[in-house]
Amino acid sequence: MFQDNPLLAQLKQQLHSQTPRAEGVVKATEKGFGFLEVDGQKSYFIPPPQMKKVMHGD
């Protein structure tokens, strides 16, 4: 029912294009969480479950 549904594909594309993105360097901590440092000015918190998907320095 949901496979190959053009409306769902369109919605997914719209959500993907509207999602804010940032590029930077991942800094891990010993406690399992980390931060994405962007341009040396701003940083974003990364919770432990999401840190399992990246590595320090990515």
From TrEMBL:
Residues 24-58 form the Ribonuclease B N-terminal OB domain. Keywords: Exonuclease, Hydrolase, Nuclease. It comes from the Bacteria. Gene3D superfamilies: Nucleic acid-binding proteins. The keyword Hydrolase applies. Pfam families: OB_RNB. Coiled coil: none annotated. GO terms for molecular function: exonuclease activity. SUPFAM superfamilies: Nucleic acid-binding proteins. InterPro entries: NA-bd_OB-fold, RNase_B_OB_dom. This is Exoribonuclease II.
